[in-house]
Amino acid sequence: MAGLVAAVRLAEAGLRVVTVAKGYGSLRLAPATIDILGYRPDPVDSPAQALPGFAAAHPDHPYAQVSPDVLAKSVQWLKEHVDTYSYVGEPDANMLLPTALGVPRPSAVVPETMAAGDLRSAGPLLIAGFGVLKDFHASLVAENLTAATAARGRAVRARPVVLNPSVNGDADVGALALARRFEDAAFRGVVVEELRAAATGDEAIGLPAVLGLDQARSVWTELQQATGRPVFEIPTAVPPSVPGLRLAQALQDRLRRAGGRLVLGAEAAGPELRNSELVGVRIRAAARVTPRTCRWVVLATGGLSAGGIAVDTAGALREPALGLPVHGPGPGETGFVPGYLSDHPMETAGLRVDSRLRPVGPDGEPVYPNVYAAGAVIGGARPWREKSGDGISLSTGYLAADEILKEAG
Amino acid sequence: MTAEHEFDPIRDSLDHCVKCTICESACPVAAVTPLFPGPKYVGPQAERFRGAGASVDASLDYCSSCGICTLACPQGVHVAEINSRARQVMKAQKGMPVRDHILSRPELQGILGTPVAPLANFALANKLGRLLTEKIVGIHRNAAVPKFAGHTFSRWARRHTPPATATRQVVYFHGCSTNYFEPGLGRMTIAVLEHNGFRVIVPPQGCCGLPLQSNGIFEAGRGYVRRLVAHLVPYAKKGDVIVATSTSCGLMLKREAIEILGVQDEDLRVVSTQTFDICEFLADLLAAGELKTDFQPVPITVTYHAPCQQQGHNIGKPALDLFALVPELKVIELDRACCGIAGTYGLKREKYDVAMKVGSGLFGDIRSAQPDLAVCDSETCRWQITHGSGSTSVHPVEVLYRAYGLG
């Protein structure tokens, strides 16, 4: 997401932007909610209020370079740039949305199709799964939600139902295939009938996030109208993520409309240097490696799990695209500790950046004055623990573009 | 894995698969038919069971070889290439229709069809003839087949006198379709290159073997590509650039002959690194300040669809950078994955409907844009686009040819 955000912003400002990608990024696997800060490690009610203190306590965290003003502007920017549907919520307050495991998850800015699941205010819920969708179990969601909300002091009653509309006669389909079926009116009609028969009292209806791909807003609106109840999506737990696909497509459409270019299947193979200044990036494409010259680079290649940071069998860390220095446990140092859910030193490995998001060397000085980093390639964060990944990607992507625009004048 | 296993950068890339499903969500075929379960399922997943060459899954035949899975994969898994190789094994084990042998030899079609072009074209445009062809051979009666030009580009090129003013040299790999079906594209390409000061060499050349490769007929495909390479390699060794207007055949030389057919050959490697898609080459000239930009206004609206095989070059869409130089040309960039045809896939009786469904989004976009021309780099895609949308479809070079005022 960080790369697309920066690319769209720069292209819309009139710069010639080429986005080079080895493949589609992990945004397509994300629930596409904008989690800014959920835990520090105690639960956060207001990310906007918590951030200054959090940044001060974590000077190596990417949020240490992001002011509350930039964060707020980046959220506003995203809301204005997704046409698929509206994003609702503000950095001031976390909602608590159900996960596919029935856990209340803090998130600040979410697709409108998910907002009615906010457990801070929700009434009784009917959680509807599909017999053909093995990645989402309504009873698991409902039982865990009921228990988890009771433990938090505000019990939400949740009840499961399994819907069985025919999906091409298949016994087993994925989330994406189901989302495509939802774009068919006859299929929706069958689902609506089953939902109307199942729902009672003033229940709101929670469904897995498969309510259409390109037509999500109209599918969701129709379901609310036809059932006469609030309807909300719950992100599915295993890939693909339909909301992630929607958001990635929305940003890619924006990039194309702004005249930005996307080069897919190509890999960065190092900096193109002239007198030790970076004047481009060497790109590996079919048959050869060729330099692409440019004035500025935004590096948004992701963290360890995405390959933006690599670690070899000896434990040495490197940044494969431009060969930038990586901060983290070196060979022979402890990268991982016993205990799957422990704090592993390797988790926070990544680039260190200055206040303008330029990767710095051990001396604290920028390695190249015209290279900026955005998203998970910047180290210092534990996004899965903090629930901060999308907020970091969005705000640093936005800020990297800001810095370049300042220079471009 | 056996003791004698040697590292194979294509097949062994499946170890990088993290089952993220990004390829599945990008696959245009799996999106429209349950007959194809998706590239991950038949690729990295099924490949683990293939071991000593056993074919485990016939649905692989419904892969169109568009290559979008490889492009989309963020982990660098060569999904499409693994699937193409597995299909070859499967078809060798299960046998293949005679049709696939015919469809995959455009050069033979051209040699046989060109002298009798009026008759051949009549047969191809005749409903009864097409019905019989479908019943007997298995080529769908409605599928977009090209017309024989009746004369060849290579014959024209041999008689063509290059301008005396040329200051540099480039080699043109025109491919079978330009030779037999669209010789006009070859003439326009030469005019555009000569306008930019090039002397264009057109060596004798034959089929690159791509249709054989995509139909799983590897041994014959290797023979074709080796013969082609033998024609081109003397120029490549001298450092001459080879440009291709058939974007999929250019990709065959650049990558697929090595990665799919497994041709390990120094001559091919040299040819590969010297081969450029025509728009890639012209855009590189532009970047170097060496492209003539004396473009005249072309006050028309065009749509541009970058076909899958062009995207496989990993060069983005250089045609758009060239079009941006043409005054008054309105360009609508389309963002659809595939037109469905995938070479010979959409011609086949059992796959025609799948191919038309794959392309339906693209056809709809073109119909609603109502362009004067639907521009696309690949010949079989152009024929499919015209068939599906009704719009005349041309290669990007044709737009540049007009803009240079060459015809």
Sequence of strands across the biggest β-sheet of chain A? 7-6-8-9
Largest interface: A-B, 36 and 33 residues
Low-confidence stretches of chain A: none
The helix count of chain A comes to 10
Query: What composes the largest sheet of chain A?
Result: 4 strands, parallel
Radius of gyration of CA atoms of chain B, rounded to a whole number: 21 Å
How is the CATH topology of the largest domain in chain A named?
FAD/NAD(P)-binding domain
Order of helices and strands of chain B: HHHHHHHHHEHHEHHEHHEHEHHEHEHEH
Which structural class fits the helix and strand makeup of chain B? alpha/beta
Q: Which parts of chain B are unreliable, with pLDDT below 50 for 5 consecutive residues or more? A: none
Largest sheet: number of strands, sense, barrel closure of chain B: 4 strands, parallel
What share of the residues of chain B does DSSP label as strand, in percent? 5-15%
**What is the name of the CATH topology of the largest domain in chain B?**
Rossmann fold
**Architecture of the largest domain in chain A, CATH level 2?**
3-Layer(bba) Sandwich
Helix content of chain A: 25-40%
Describe this structure in words.
- Helix content of chain A is 30%, strand content 18%.
- Chain A has 409 residues and is of the alpha/beta class.
- Chain A has two domains: 2-84 and 246-408, FAD/NAD(P)-binding domain (3-Layer(bba) Sandwich); 115-234, Rossmann fold (3-Layer(aba) Sandwich).
- Chain A has a four-stranded parallel sheet with strand order 7-6-8-9, with helices on both faces. A three-stranded antiparallel sheet of chain A has the order 11-12-13, with no helix packed on it. A two-stranded parallel sheet of chain A has the order 1-10.
- In chain A, β11 (267-274) and β12 (277-285) form a beta hairpin.
- In chain A, α1 packs parallel to α8 (242-257), α1 (2-12) packs parallel to α10 and α3 packs across α10 (389-408).
- By secondary structure, chain B is of the alpha/beta class.
- The model of chain B has no long low-confidence stretch (mean pLDDT 94).
- Chain B is globular and about 60 Å long.
- In chain B, α14 packs antiparallel against α15 (266-274).
- Chain B is built from 21 helices and eight strands.
- The interface between A and B is medium-sized, with 36 and 33 residues.
